[in-house]
Design a protein that fits this description.
0% strand; MxaK protein
Amino acid sequence: MGSRIKQKNIVLALLLAIGITGSAYEAYQLRKIEGINHALQQGQLISGDAYPMQQKFTAAYQLGLHEDFKHAVQTYSQLLETGLSQSDQAKIQFNIGNNLFQSGLNRRINDDGTLKDEARYDFSQAKVAYQQALRLNPDSRLAKFNLSLLLSLLPENMVNAKKEQSGMELSNIPVGLP
C-alpha cells in the first residue's frame, strides 16, 4: 500500500511539474502577444522576425501616416503576395484604397478645374481596390462608405486625358509621309 501511494505521489508531482511548466510557457506567450498588441496600438514598428506580416503591415501603415502613399501601396501589395486569408486580403485592399484615395486628394487640379492625370489614376485605382475589398468581404461597411465617398467626388463622365498623337503609327511609319 505504501508503494502505491508513492507511485501516485510521483505521478501527481510529474503532472504538477508539467502543469507549472505549461502555465509558465503560456504566460510568456501572453506577455509577448500583449507587447505586440501594445506596439500596434501605439503605432510603433514591430521588431523581430516572429511576426513578419504584422511588421510589414505596420511599416506600410507608418508610410501612409507620413504621406508616402506610393511606398505604402507598394508595401501593402507585397503583403498580398504572401498568401493571406480572404479577410486579411480585404483589409489590405481597403488600406491600399485609402492610400490611393488620399494620394489623389493631395494632387492638385489643373488650371481649368479638371483633375490632373495622376489624381485621376489614383482615384481609379482606389476604386478598384475598394471594389476588390468588397468582393473579398461584402459586409465591410468601411469599404462601402469609402467607395461611395470616392464615387461622389468623381465627375460623372470622367474621361482620361487625351493623349497627343506621337506622329508614329503602329507600323512605325511616320504619319504624313508618302
